UniProtKB/TrEMBL annotation, chain A:
Gene3D superfamilies: Sodium/glucose cotransporter. Pfam families: SSF (PF00474). It is found in: Cell membrane. The lineage of its organism: Bacteria, Bacillati, Actinomycetota, Actinomycetes, Streptosporangiales. It is a multi-pass membrane protein. This is Cation/acetate symporter. Its main location: membrane. PANTHER family: CATION_ACETATE SYMPORTER ACTP, SODIUM/PROLINE SYMPORTER-RELATED.
TrEMBL record, chain B:
The lineage of its organism: Bacteria, Bacillati, Actinomycetota, Actinomycetes, Streptosporangiales. Residues 285-386 form the Histidine kinase domain. PROSITE patterns: HIS_KIN. It catalyses: ATP + protein L-histidine = ADP + protein N-phospho-L-histidine. This is histidine kinase. Its EC number is 2.7.13.3. GO terms for cellular component: membrane. GO terms for molecular function: phosphorelay sensor kinase activity. Keywords: Kinase, Membrane, Transferase, Transmembrane, Transmembrane helix, Two-component regulatory system. The chain crosses the membrane at residues 6-25. It comes from Nonomuraea maritima. CDD domains: HATPase_YehU-like.
Length: 490, 392
């Protein structure tokens, strides 16, 4: 275990040296290429939920759960079509930056900051939880140890500046995770073949592999809600958007998104197969999130099984560390800049806040399947930032008051649902379904509120909207007047 | 257990805001003991609330937000504010008089004197019977009028209206001041656009001339680099560029300087690719590099080393330009940066410092580490995003 953590830290340290070759001459072609950048996005994006959670949910609830990886990939399609290039052209580094650039209001900016922090915390919490789960599965240590371990490693790494948004390091993480899942899978499939290629049991064939017959109530509603949350939530994740800044222009941002789509598409084939194999070989698991870790020893065993288990575990820890550090940097940056005073001291405090709160949540909250909790973070993002980005980019009549109202109502409702789900519950029936998958009602409400309030307050449309729209939508190589610099009015 | 956690979370979510609210309310109540003191604080507080909306000048939006507080100050039934052309806001009772409010103000707008008007109204219960109209002036020019409506225009109301108008005038003058300061900053940033030094042009051309016979191919290459460098430096549009463009220009500059100094000039560049798209003020690094070359090399014998490092640091980018030259007395440098004494041979550091502060605020000025004989290191921090700053 220690080896993996040390290796991850070393890769961090070594990667910095590797990616920052010292030279006599500046080489202009060294801008980050779309492939590297896309790998970095993939590396940061593929969290414990993707690495462990998807296979576990597929094992438990059947093919309905395939919508989760589909949505997590498809979210980039929506991002590609509606958001990526204009967002890059806006010059914004974080979501609050975009809110300020488009709506020219500090109030909206602060609201966006608070939401970013909440989404970040919600996303970090399951990472810590599943780190505990993995460590318990492998070593038998108590659940809190793994979470604490990852939290400390991430905090130290971020504070020492080790993993701070280094493209190369995060890009490496993607390929590490892909290898850690793909190589064992090859062996597992060979074992399955030599085992006489057993099929699913007759009962599973009738229910498990047929859509909308899985073990969950209100399957149709939940599925649509999940699709909505994942497709629209991706654009509101704080650690994804900061990567787009590295692209030199809007065109490169689109290309990067396209590469991300294919990289994620390739990756998400694997957990689905794990889930299917798990249904055949390990249908008795209690915490199905561990299926990816359990399969090598169950199906192969011996030294090879141990080696493969170690490889998968390394991949899982890579997933915890990369996603958590990316999120921690983003969340801490926003806390330090918008909620504290800014500067190095604030960043340290902010890093602690960014790590400690989700760690506490992870230790005390209800142990839900990791992919479900991450799905909730997506739901909050989809009901707050998706309307802000989509309407902000494509609708010039969006008013400051409208955006604020939409963020508060949409984000507030989704947050409330999430809070109730992870602290109380489980709830039965319609209430349970509505609370566990809130996106289907919160997203339309958020859009409706934003549009309606904007119509009611036409005098609160920001003064510079025409100029902002020109900046967002004209390609960079077009030579036209985008307006001069003006000092910020106090 | 779950219910326990749930209730704890709810307690925190509900408790913290209510605690803050309670503190705020209590804080307000604690002020002042006697009724007179409390009334004074009350008035000052109302005035301070009305101030900020007016700081944008006489606009419909600002007037609307200020009018409620101004009416509270005056204690009148209704209040109207007009600018020179139209009614900006009518606030209070008797909404049906809003349509005539501009006519009420017309005489005052014309001659700038306080008027007391009697208003005809058929409604018995309407509290608007008389109006006091006072002018709003900036620089002795009538820019608008404030009308206070009530049952009767008592001497007290007239006096209060005039005082409030005087207070509004001072806010409007502050707004005017803000506006001219903004214009001044814009003009300054344009005027401060750094220029490449004539020495450099002269030195480059003589260096190139020295190669024309011995190595014509090299001379040709250098001349092309020089042409590209000048085209970038002399461009007219836009106050900002990307760090990548700026570094490309610095690279050309260094090629020319290396042609001149040969092995005496040793360079180290370490640039994080993540910060290349950052928008930076046009020619904000080139003067620093030029400074490093001049101070680090020209005034001493032997090999000079220069290091340019750009790092990614979350929401900002950190750049340092370091030389191992003669260094400088920190006190002298401070005075140069403060503009107390002109620096030798150009605007250089002080100019960059000034521009960075203008654009990003005082916390983003240059930080220079230096001592006589210890070399110089100039640190620049640039935020990745700043409102209004964009490279294109």
């Amino acid at each position: 275990m220690l080896v993996v953590v040390v290796a991850a830290v070393l890769i961090g340290a070594f990667g910095i040296r590797f990616s920052r070759t010292t030279s006599d001459f500046y080489v202009a072609s060294r801008t980050v290429s779309p492939l590297w950048n896309a790998s970095a996005i993939g590396g940061e994006y593929l969290s414990a939920a993707s690495f462990l959670g998807v296979a576990g949910l597929v094992l438990s609830f059947g093919v309905d759960m395939l919508w989760l990886p589909v949505g997590w990939t498809g979210g980039y399609l929506v991002l590609l079509v509606l958001v990526s290039a204009p967002l890059r052209r806006s010059g914004a580094y974080t979501l609050p930056d975009f809110a300020e650039a488009r709506l020219e209001s500090m109030t909206v900016r602060r609201t966006a900051s608070v939401l970013v922090v909440l989404i970040g915390w919600l996303y970090l919490m399951p990472q810590f939880q599943s780190a505990g789960l993995v460590l318990r599965t492998i070593t038998g240590a108590p659940v809190w140890v793994g979470g604490l371990l990852v939290a400390v490693v991430v905090a130290v790494n971020v504070l020492s500046g080790g993993m701070r948004s280094i493209t190369f390091v995060q890009a490496f993480q993607y390929w590490l995770k892909l290898t850690a899942l793909a190589v064992p899978l090859v062996f597992l499939l060979m074992a399955w073949q030599s085992d006489g290629a057993p099929a699913l049991s007759a009962e599973d064939a009738a229910t498990w592999q047929v859509p909308l017959t899985g073990g969950r109530d209100y399957a149709l509603y939940s599925t649509y809600s999940l699709i909505l949350a994942t497709f629209l939530g991706t654009m509101g994740l704080p650690h994804v958007l900061v990567r787009f800044y590295t692209n030199p222009d809007g065109r490169a941002a689109r290309r990067t998104t396209l590469v991300v789509l294919s990289l994620l598409g390739a990756f998400y084939l694997l957990p689905a197969v794990y889930g299917w194999l798990g249904r055949i070989y390990a249908p008795d698991l209690v915490r199905t999130d561990t299926v990816v870790l359990t399969l090598p020893s169950r199906m192969i065993g011996g030294t090879l099984g141990d080696v493969l288990t170690a490889l998968v575990t390394a991949g899982a820890f890579a997933a915890f560390l990369s996603t958590s550090s990316g999120l921690t940097v983003s969340v801490a940056g926003v806390i330090a800049q918008d909620l504290l005073k800014g500067g190095v001291r604030s960043f340290r405090w902010a890093t602690l806040m960014a790590v400690v709160v989700p760690l506490a949540l992870a230790l005390w909250a209800r142990a839900l399947p990791v992919a479900d909790v991450v799905g909730l973070a997506f739901a909050v993002a989809a009901s707050s930032f998706c309307p802000l980005l989509v309407l902000g980019i494509w609708w010039r009549r969006l008013s400051t008051t409208g955006a604020l109202a939409g963020l508060l109502v949409g984000g507030g409702l989704a947050c409330a649902a999430v809070l109730v789900t992870i602290t109380g519950g489980p709830y039965e029936g319609v209430t349970g379904a509505l609370l566990a998958q809130p996106a289907a009602w919160t997203v339309p409400i958020a859009f409706a509120v934003m549009v309606a309030v904007s119509f009611l307050t036409p005098d609160r449309v920001p003064a510079g909207v025409a100029r902002t729209m020109v900046r967002l939508h004209t390609p960079e190589n077009l030579d036209l007047d985008r307006g001069d610099w003006r000092p910020r009015s106090s | 257990m779950e219910y326990l956690v749930g209730s704890a979370v709810v307690a925190v979510v509900v408790g913290v805001p209510s605690f803050v609210l309670w503190r705020v309310m209590r804080g307000r109540r604690e002020l002042g003991t006697s009724p007179a003191e409390r009334a004074t604080f009350e008035t000052l507080h109302t005035a301070s609330l009305a101030g900020p909306p007016l700081r944008a000048g006489l606009t419909a939006d600002g007037a609307e937000r200020a009018s409620r507080h101004l009416r509270a100050l005056l204690g009148s039934a209704a209040l109207a504010i007009t600018d020179g052309e139209r009614l900006l806001v009518y606030d209070g009772a008797g909404e049906h008089h809003a349509a005539e409010a501009y006519e009420h103000a017309a005489a005052t707008l014309k001659d700038g004197r306080t008027q007391v008007l009697t208003i005809d109204c058929d409604l018995l219960e309407c509290p608007v019977r008389q109006a006091v109209v006072v002018p709003l002036t900036t620089d002795d020019r009538v820019v608008g009028a404030l009308a206070a409506y009530g049952q009767s225009a008592s001497a007290g109301l007239v006096r209060a209206a005039e005082e409030v108008a005087g207070w509004v005038d001072s806010q409007l003058e502050l707004a005017e001041l803000d506006r001219s300061r903004t214009l001044l900053m814009e003009a300054e940033v344009r005027a401060l656009r750094a220029q490449i030094s004539p020495h450099f042009i002269y030195n480059s051309l003589t260096t190139i001339a020295s190669f024309v016979r011995t190595d014509p191919e090299r001379a040709r290459e250098l001349l092309l680099e020089f042409a590209d460098f000048t085209r970038y430096s002399f461009r007219r549009h836009g106050e900002f560029t990307t760090l990548a463009e700026e570094l490309r220009s610095i690279d050309r500059y260094l090629i020319l300087e290396r042609a001149r100094f040969g092995d005496q000039l040793q360079m180290t560049l370490r640039i994080a690719p993540e910060v290349l798209p950052v928008a930076v003020p046009f020619l904000c690094l080139q003067p620093l590099v030029e400074n490093a070359v001049r101070h680090g090399l020209e005034s001493k014998n032997g090999v000079g080393r220069i290091a340019i490092i750009a790092e990614d640091a979350g929401a900002e980018c950190r750049i340092s330009v370091e030389d191992d030259g003669l260094g400088m007395d920190p006190e002298r440098l401070r005075r140069i940066l403060a503009g107390e004494i002109p620096s030798a041979g150009g605007v250089g550091l002080a100019n960059v410092d000034e521009r960075l502060r203008q654009v990003y605020g005082d916390e983003y000025g240059l930080v220079v580490e230096t001592a006589p004989g210890a070399g110089t290191k100039v640190n620049v921090r640039l935020p990745k995003y700043h409102p209004g700053v964009s490279a294109r």
